Automatic annotation (TrEMBL):
Pfam families: Beta_helix, NosD. This is Adhesin. Transmembrane segments: none annotated. Residues 507-641 form the Right handed beta helix domain. Gene3D superfamilies: Immunoglobulins, Single-stranded right-handed beta-helix, Pectin lyase-like. Residues 121-236, 242-320 form the Periplasmic copper-binding protein NosD beta helix domain. It comes from Methanobrevibacter millerae.
């Protein structure tokens, strides 16, 4: 070979090598498949296994984070026991975290500029971060199948709303088990993380919510305990997170125990909700939810439905709600808040319980103007009759003796600012009691001997038979005045779990009035007891200007006391009701201008009528600001309701309750929001544990159907079973589909004209539970019933088909046996249905039959039938065949030409590795590769393919089994896209460079760009982005980005900013030459100078509002070239002029 040929060969090789760097990835795929020097087996066949890392006690946040950053998917992180403080760490790998009882405590604040939070957590996605704005102690982010257990996580010590102890985002399949989550605004904030499991955790002391499941579909939430989460115990929400199961959790002490919002398909069952102040379970804007078999203990509302709910099915639950004995406070098994009424003005109208009338609403209010109320305190408080002064050292007996000596119209005058202890006194005379700021302190025990004898004696013994303990009684009199007294009741409180009508602790009061008409109580401070003021049958009275506080039950109760005025009182820190007005003998009470802070229900109107409630301020009511229960002909207007979740609650047979304009500042929370309820309804027809069952939609209710499913005993294994479907009136329902679950199989059957649906099944002797489900229709709600089927046949056979597990084609057979009383039955036909094929076999003398298994790897259901005979009943049995593959490989995802390779392990028919050196075959895109296994039966194939998705098939050399996996090769260059830009605007061509670890490379990596044959090198920034300014002339270009052997190409279109068209004209006909100018965004560019060159003469013209520059053409006939110029942009056109 001469030198010229050698030089030519070298030159051609150089051209090939150079041009290969310029080619697109897809152009070289065939070359890669056929060049064995590109795909080669490495000498090192070891497969990397997962590793364990241990965090030493006392490690700081940085040390822990560095350890996590060094880990790989599949690794395990172990904490040593101990307490770790000032921690803020994140995990974005598929690892297992074993807490081993360690405690991690968050920072006391997120720091200046949030610098206590890892930069990658808070950085924007454009800068390679996760853009999380919530503060947390531990973040689980953007990785699948993270496992967390045995760790105590204490939230950041700050009152900021947006903090969490544990924050989880984009973590599919996460498992959070057996941890303690303490403090913070949210205990666990889990967003966009489907298919996770949150189980066996203790979550406590959150200022907002224990566990928030936001848009995380199919989460299993089970066996958790949530204690003292202020707002919601468990909160499941957002339309992207359907089908969540909330099972067997305990929630204690939240406003709403379980809160299901703006999502669907959830199940809440077997949960225990305790002391949830508003409701045990709330559904707000949710749909297709099943609520059953829960225990709701000591909430006032069982289930609250609001905000556009639909298809909420409430089954059988156990209700032990927050009722109180006589005088009773009733409970609400279900309350509904229809969306039609949910604004400060939409709730204006007149309402009646749907159980009483079909006309439930009118928007005509006609509220009468309240009459002026004039109370002449000068007259009321002026002493009358004889004045009896009480010395500062008087005892209860001394004071009672003075009262007993007084006559109607006299005045009892206490020593100014005196303090009297162990007081229990009464008056049954028409006297005035002037307190002069004296303090009466009651007994601190419940001893009837301390009560005056006449108060406690029965009427037959000339007594008043009062069963209540009080500091001051006013009984059977008229016109009594009690003013300017401080009354302190020291009676012990009661146990809410055991309180009853005979519980003495429940029956205590500061002032107790009975049959004391025209009573005035004014200017008093009343502290403690179950009731501050308890007045019954004491009409035409005035209760004003009192400070009533710290009662175990109600601030004051107005029982059967008509026409009373309750005004200008301040009532704080009472447990149940602030002001309670009730009983049919007490109509027309006026309640105005009172301030109530901190009751369950601020103002409570019950079983009475004609009241006016206006100008009151109700703050921080735990359930509702104002409740009307079984009351009617009432007017509620001009009240200010602040801080309650529910404004108005109407229940228990309310009628003609008029709601006027009120002011609301209800208990709303920002994103993720907790919405408020302006008005809720608890209609009578739902208020029992049985009647509440049914399916609810906003503005509609479907009563549950009735299913008659009776127990059955059969003397044959061939069982026919009938069920009957009826509506709530007992009428049979035809043409409806029932789902019947029996012995692990689900049947569907349609009811006939008699409402009967029938199924047949073959069952061995034994007892079976049959479950019958009706999904509901437009008239009937869902219903489920169950019964027992007992099969006791003397002709039953024993058909057995044991499950088998085998390796591919290793000769194992599937065997069935048919016996009666332990003896094989010969020459009987059995049918083995396997993989959709019926295989008929005869039993041998031992009652056995078998078939060979030549199926591909997988699990197969098997059904074996025996049709029976004259002597024997039929039988059927289900089984399973599991065929194990003799080839084990996994899908891989790798970055272009990084160190990740494909491995497959080969075994023989008994699961043992193939012998070292055995040759196996791989097929990629029709190209075969042969490799040898190592001592573990593993063969490796290096993958140096271009970016794309490939199928690799491995073939077993002995049994011919083939197994396939998917190989995904990710490019090193991403986020590249075609670019369309205007000439010299700010748009750039940008690519993101990915390193071998799949993460963006850091700064100063060199990227080469080729455009029009010119090479440009640019450096990446800290986030892995490389950018190229495009300053080309208008036109279409192809740009190729190159890094680490990976090439990508895109189109670049540069649009001109100047545009004009050729013109043809006659001499001086007035035609103008027009050039249009746009800015860098394509918008008309006004007030800019455009230069025209024609015949070597330059003209400057300014663009108008449309971006057009115009030049008058007065040239002689001929053809001319005109050039338009702006900055560095120039275009040319032709002008043709005829004479």
């Amino acid at each position: 070979m001469d030198n010229k040929k050698i030089l030519l060969g070298i030159f051609l090789v150089f051209i090939v090598l150079f041009s290969s760097n310029m080619a697109f990835a897809e152009d070289v795929s065939d070359d890669i498949f056929h060049q064995d020097n590109i795909i080669a087996i490495s000498e090192n066949d070891n497969i990397q296994t997962s590793s364990q890392q241990t965090i030493s006690a006392g490690s700081n946040s940085t040390t822990i984070q560095n350890t996590i950053n060094s880990m790989s998917d599949g690794d395990t992180l172990n904490f040593e026991q101990g307490t770790y403080t000032d921690i803020c760490i994140y995990v974005d790998k598929s690892i297992t975290i074993n807490g081993n009882g360690a405690t991690i405590i968050g920072y006391s604040s997120p720091g200046d500029n949030n610098n206590n939070i890892a930069e990658k957590v808070r950085a924007t996605t454009a800068d390679g971060g996760y853009a999380v704005s919530n503060f947390a102690t531990l973040y689980l982010l953007n990785a699948e199948n993270i496992k967390l257990n045995g760790l105590k996580i204490v939230g950041i010590d700050t009152s900021t709303y947006s903090n969490a102890a544990l924050y989880v985002s984009q973590a599919k399949g996460v498992e959070i088990d057996n941890n303690i989550i303490e403090g913070s605004s949210w205990g666990i904030y889990m967003t966009s993380s489907p298919d996770g499991t949150v189980s066996n955790n203790m979550i406590k002391d959150q200022t907002t919510t224990g566990f928030l499941n936001f848009g995380s579909a199919r989460t299993l939430i089970t066996n958790n305990t949530v204690v003292n989460a202020k707002n919601h115990g468990i909160d499941v929400r957002h339309g992207t997170g359907p089908n969540v199961q909330v099972i067997n959790n305990t929630v204690i002490g939240s406003k709403e125990g379980i809160y299901l919002m703006h999502s669907k398909g959830h199940t809440a069952t077997q949960n225990t909700l305790i002391n949830c102040s508003i409701s045990s379970i709330t559904c707000y804007g949710s749909s297709e939810v099943n609520i059953y078999d829960n225990t709701m203990y000591k909430s006032r509302i069982g289930v609250l439905l609001g905000g556009g709910y639909s298809d909420i099915t409430i089954g059988e639950n156990k209700f032990q709600l927050d009722n109180l004995p006589f005088p009773p406070t009733f409970v609400y098994y279900v309350a509904t808040a229809q969306s039609d009424y949910q604004s400060a003005t939409d709730d204006i109208g007149v309402y009646t319980d749907s159980s009483l009338s079909e006309d439930t609403y009118s928007n005509v209010t006609n509220i009468p103007t309240p009459k002026d109320i004039d109370v002449n305190y000068d007259v009321i408080l002026s002493p009358t009759g004889n004045i009896y002064n009480v010395s500062a050292d008087a005892s209860s007996t001394d004071i009672q003796g003075i009262i007993d000596s007084m006559a109607d119209g006299d005045t009892l005058n206490f020593a100014e600012n005196a303090v009297y202890e162990d007081i229990c006194i009464y008056t049954d005379k028409n006297i005035k009691i002037i307190g002069n700021n004296a303090t009466l302190i009651g007994y601190n025990e419940l001893n009837s001997a301390n009560i005056p004898e006449k108060v406690r004696n029965q009427s037959s013994s000339n007594g008043y038979a009062v069963a209540y303990y009080a500091v001051l009684y006013t009984l059977n009199n008229t016109g009594v005045v009690v003013s300017d007294l401080n009354i302190i009741s020291k009676f012990p409180g009661y146990n809410t779990a055991t309180v009853g009508t005979t519980t003495n602790e429940y029956k205590t009061a500061g002032i107790y009035a009975d049959a004391s008409t025209k009573l005035t109580v004014t200017g008093c401070d009343i502290e403690g007891a179950s009731f501050g003021i308890f007045m019954q049958y004491s009409g035409d009275s005035i209760i004003t200007n009192n400070n009533i506080h710290d009662q175990y039950t109600n601030g004051m109760i107005n029982f059967g006391s008509p026409r009373n005025i309750i005004a200008n009182n301040t009532i704080t820190n009472v447990v149940n009701h602030g002001i309670d007005v009730r009983h049919g003998t007490g109509p027309n009470v006026i309640v105005f201008n009172n301030t109530i802070n901190g009751a369950k229900e601020g103002i409570y109107l019950m079983h009475s009528k004609g009241h006016m409630v206006y100008n009151n301020t109700i703050m921080n009511a735990k359930i509702a600001s104002i409740t009307a229960y079984g009351s009617g002909e009432e007017y509620i207007f001009n009240n200010n309701m602040i801080g309650s979740r529910i404004g108005l609650l109407l229940g228990g047979g309310y009628y003609n309750v008029t709601i006027g304009e009120n002011q609301y500042a209800l208990d709303f929370l920002p994103f993720p929001p907790t919405f408020v309820t302006y008005i809720a309804f608890a209609d009578t027809k739902y208020q029992s544990s049985e009647n509440v069952q049914g399916t609810y939609s906003d503005g509609a209710y479907l009563p549950p159907a009735t299913i008659i499913a009776e127990d059955l005993t059969s003397n044959s294994t061939k069982v026919s079973y009938d069920v009957i479907l009826k509506d709530n009136n007992g009428i049979e329902v035809a043409n409806e589909t029932l789902s019947i679950e029996l012995n692990g199989e689900t049947f569907t059957a349609v009811t006939d004209e008699k409402g009967t649906a029938s199924i047949e099944s073959i069952l061995p002797n034994g007892n079976y539970t049959v479950v019958v489900n009706f999904a509901g229709n437009d008239k009937l709600g869902k219903k489920t019933e169950q019964a027992t089927i007992t099969v006791d046949s003397p002709n039953a056979v024993d058909l057995k088909a044991p499950e088998i597990e085998m390796y591919y084609k290793n000769g194992t057979r599937f065997v069935v046996s048919l016996t009666a009383n332990g003896t094989g039955i010969n020459n009987e036909t059995v049918i083995i249905n396997l993989n959709g094929v019926n295989n008929t076999r005869k039993t041998d003398e031992n009652g056995t039959a078998s078939i060979a298994i030549n199926l591909n790897a997988g699990e197969y259901d098997v059904v074996v039938y025996y049709d029976g005979s004259d002597k024997y009943d039929p039988a059927v049995v289900n089984s399973k065949v599991t065929v194990l593959s003799t080839i084990e490989g996994k899908d891989i995802t790798k970055v272009f030409r990084n160190g990740t390779q494909y491995y497959a392990t080969f075994t023989d028919g008994q699961g043992n590795p193939l012998a070292n050196g055995t040759t196996v075959k791989f097929n990629i895109n029709g190209v075969m590769y042969y490799r040898q296994v190592n001592e573990n039966g593993t063969a490796r194939l290096n993958i140096n393919l271009d970016q794309g998705t490939y199928i690799i098939t491995a073939t077993h050399p002995d049994n011919g089994e083939m197994a396939s996996n998917t190989i995904t090769v990710l490019p090193k260059i991403t986020e590249n896209s075609d670019l369309v830009k205007y000439y010299r605007n700010d748009s750039q061509y940008v690519v993101k460079i990915i390193g071998d670890d799949g993460n963006p490379v850091g700064a100063n990596e060199t990227v080469t760009f080729n455009i029009n044959g010119v090479m440009y090198e640019r450096k990446t920034n800290a986030s892995g982005y490389a950018k190229l300014n495009i300053n080309l002339q208008p036109g279409d270009y192809i740009i190729t980005a190159m890094y680490g052997g990976c090439n990508v190409a895109n189109n670049i279109t540069v649009k001109p900013v100047l545009n004009a068209t050729n013109i043809s004209m006659t001499y001086r006909d007035g035609t103008q030459f027009k050039a249009t100018l746009v800015d860098g965004q394509g918008n008309p560019f006004a007030n800019q100078n455009v230069t025209f060159n024609i015949n070597g003469v330059f003209y400057n013209r300014e663009t108008d509002s449309q971006g057009t520059a115009k030049l008058n053409i007065n040239l002689m006939a001929g053809e001319y070239i005109i050039t338009s110029m702006y900055n560095d942009s120039a275009i040319s056109n032709k002008i043709t002029i005829t004479a």
